[in-house]
Design a protein that fits this description.
Pfam families: Peptidase_M10, PG_binding_1. Keywords: Calcium, Hydrolase, Metal-binding, Metalloprotease, Protease, Signal, Zinc, Zymogen. InterPro entries: MetalloPept_cat_dom_sf, Pept_M10_metallopeptidase, Pept_M10A, Pept_M10A_Zn_BS, Peptidoglycan-bd-like, PGBD-like_sf. Its cofactor is Zn(2+); Ca(2+). Belongs to the peptidase M10A family. Matrix metalloproteinases (MMPs) subfamily. There is one protein chain. By secondary structure, this protein is of the alpha/beta class. It folds into 2 domains: about 80 residues, Muramoyl-pentapeptide Carboxypeptidase, domain 1, CATH 1.10.101.10; about 90 residues, 3-Layer(aba) Sandwich (Collagenase (Catalytic Domain)). The chain is built from 5 helices and 5 strands. The chain has a 5-stranded mixed β-sheet with strand order 3-2-4-1-5, covered by helices on one side. Strand 2, helix 5 and strand 3 form a beta-alpha-beta unit. The N and C termini lie close together (about 10 Å). The protein binds 2-acetamido-2-deoxy-beta-D-glucopyranose (3 copies). One 2-acetamido-2-deoxy-beta-D-glucopyranose (NAG) binds next to loops.
């Protein structure tokens, strides 16, 4: 993405009012070349019963996103827990649930993604057996909506970044335009503090308990508790 030039900082958008959109439309994301995506390449074809360097990292990924119990082993054995978690991951992401680190899985796991777990269950995120693929979207409690179709947005700064301001503003304008193209909403940039939507650059621990974890890793978590965040 154009904004990959950001180093430690991540752009995120904060809506002052709960976002009425249940789900963002499809957008093209480029696979990253992070150490984890390289690990995945080396794990191609790996399945239950094998021991391979990098399975521990895969366990970490599956754990982070809710498919394996927190604190579970980080060894390199591709055991039945890893297989079951991987199948669950595949089903969740509408892939064939082969339980094998196949091409589609590698592709999916290499994409930038939201930092929130897919499965939020306590204490055991990986019950025996698979659950069906979930709904593609849900509404926030009470199905809140915007009460208007013209929304304003503005930039707020959380961290200092040396970045081309013109390029950022253009990227934001284009992003809002994509929403405007497929919805009744229109968006204008403003410097007014009463803007409906704010965006900015932040690093590490910011406005919630989920610190940004660095370039190429999980992006900003999305919340619906009175506000909504997304990262680009
Ligand atoms: C979610 O979207 C995918 C891809 O468009 C589709 O195949 C699947 O049936 C949808 N799932 C539900 C529960 O609607
Ligand atoms: C900043 O970005 C704009 C738009 O992409 C570009 O036209 C301009 O040359 C860039 N400026 C610098 C100093 O890189
Ligand atoms: C939105 O911005 C455009 C272009 O700057 C301007 O012409 C228009 O009046 C603005 N709309 C509102 C409702 O402020």
């Amino acid at each position: 993405m154009a904004l990959n030039l950001l180093n430690l900082s991540i752009l995120f958008v904060l809506l002052n009012i709960i976002n009425p959109f249940p789900f963002a439309g499809p957008r093209t994301l480029e696979a990253s070349t992070t150490p984890f995506s390289k690990t995945l390449q080396n794990l191609r074809g790996v399945h239950r019963g094998q021991n391979a360097k990098g399975v521990g990292e895969l366990r970490g990924y599956l754990q982070k996103y809710g498919y394996l119990t927190k604190g579970s082993s980080s060894n390199d054995n591709f055991d039945e827990n890893v297989e079951s978690a991987l199948k669950h991951y595949q089903a969740f992401h509408h892939l064939r649930d082969t339980g094998v680190v196949d091409d589609d899985t590698i592709k999916k796991m290499s994409l930038p993604r939201c930092g929130m777990p897919d499965i939020i269950t306590n204490p055991n995120p990986n019950p025996n057996g698979l659950v069906g693929a979930p709904e593609n979207y849900t509404f926030f409690p009470g199905s809140p909506k915007w009460s208007k179709f013209f929304l304003t947005y503005r930039r707020t700064s959380g961290a200092t970044v040396s970045i081309n301001e013109t390029a950022v503003r253009r990227a934001m304008r284009d992003a809002f335009q994509s929403w405007a193209n497929v919805s009744p909403f229109t968006f204008n940039e403003t410097t007014d503090r009463s803007a409906d939507i704010t965006y900015g650059f932040h690093r590490g621990l910011h406005l919630d308990l989920y610190p940004f974890d660095g370039p190429g890793k999980g992006a900003s978590p999305c919340f619906c508790a009175g506000r909504w965040e997304d990262s680009l």
